[in-house]
Amino acid sequence: MLTKPRYSPWDMLMWTRRELMFFAVYAAILTVAFASGLTFLRLPWAPVGVVGTAVAFIVGFQNNAAYGRIWEARKIWGGIVNTSRTWGQQVIDMVHTGGTIDDDQLRREHTALVHRHVAWMVALRHAMRAERPWEEFDKHGTNREWAREIHIPERIHDLEDELFDCLPEDEWDDVMARKNKAVAILNMQSRHLTRLKDKGLLWEFAYLELQGLLREMFTLQGKSERIKNFPYPRQYATLSYQFVRIFIVLLPFAAIAEFASLGEALQASWPTMAPHFIWAAIPFCALISWVFHTMERIGRVGENPFEGSANDVPISTIARGIEIDLRQMLGEPESHLPSPVPTSYGVQM
To answer: What is the end-to-end Cα distance of the chain in Å, rounded?
Structure first.
């Protein structure tokens, strides 16, 4: 997620520089052709303007829907933050010795429950970063350039290695054999709580409270998976994509003729500038095409809030912050705490 106050124009131009260059070249070719005498390359301005208005509505709808998905995803992971801290606090306070184990054994129980929760977050964020066929991130060269610069943690570190640091070897083998690893870890947490209750280390009310937190984790995971696995409806996404391109193709045919007519109207008052006024259609067409294309592309990258773009939910940063909080609750020394996920170019991952 972007932490700088706002994008600079240079950021947006660099992100869409290839498309902007194409729009300018396309408009220039048609302008040269029109100025060379191919004046049949014209369309009335009114129909093209109507198409542009319709496209603006469709793209606006797409952007609103994409923002809604991003905001919902951020609320879900905000819930994970709150539930995780509550889990750590209640595990430490509610799992207590009943006279059957010593303090070192009790500490190992606390550590296992907390570290297993960290493993759940690791498994969940890796699942959220997994690629889906409809996602757009790797389909654009500028996005791939961005990924090389910011170093998305889930694309650098393997899930197997990160889970091995959080789970005992026998549990690691069991989790890695499951398709949904986050669900497998929550199941382990539930079985662990039941064992603690049977040993008398967890009284009935505390057991129900902690099971309620596990139920909330299942709910939050399911909500996050729903956003990840159910894309923005493709009929709307495809329509927006195709309609913007149709408008961009048609725009110069109407704009160039309009600028030529304006030049003729200026002949009497500005005889020197009037013959060259048609060339102003090139930057005009490039600018309008760039605006519509960029609006549509922002909507596309916002549809999937876990891909790793600058405007996505920073699940790596959130999960690392929770891990640091939980380890500090356990009283682990500073040397054992992981470093926060670095911010690159004002963007949290």
So the answer is: 6
C-alpha–C-alpha distance, residues 241 and 249, integer Å = 13
What are 133-168's pLDDT values in tens digits? 887 777 776 667 776 777 788 888 899 999 998 999
Could you tell me the maximum CA-CA distance found in the chain, to the nearest angstrom?
A: 103
Burial of 333 (0-12, 13-18, 19+ CB in 10 A): exposed
The C-alpha atoms of residue 80 and residue 124 are separated, in whole angstroms, by 11
Give the position of tokens 């039941």.
Answer: 194
Phi and psi angles of residue 180, each rounded to the nearest 5 degrees, phi first: -100, 95
Written as six digits, the tokens of 84 are 């995780």
- pTM equals 0.86
Q: What is the DSSP string of 281-301?
A: HHHHHHHHHHHHHHHHHHHHH
Contact 227, 73 (CB under 8 A): yes
Euclidean distance between CA atoms 247 and 289, whole angstroms: 8
Q: Tell me if 329 sits within 8 A of 88, measured CB to CB.
A: yes
Angle at 231 between CA 8 and CA 3, to 5 degrees: 25
Q: What pLDDT digit, counting tens, does each position of 254-303 carry?
A: 999 888 877 777 676 776 676 778 888 999 999 999 999 988 888 888 88
Q: Which two tokens stand for residue 182?
A: 């986050």
Compute the distance between CA of residue 7 and CA of residue 5 in angstroms, rounded to an integer: 7
- Could you give phi then psi for residue 344, rounded to 5 degrees? -110, 125
69, 329, 87: which is closest to 215 by C-alpha?
87
Residue 337: CA count within 13 A, CB half-sphere: 18
Q: Classify each residue of 195-234 as buried b or exposed e, where b means 16 or more C-beta atoms within 10 Å of its C-beta.
A: ebbeeebbeeebbeebeebbebbeebbebbbebbeeebee
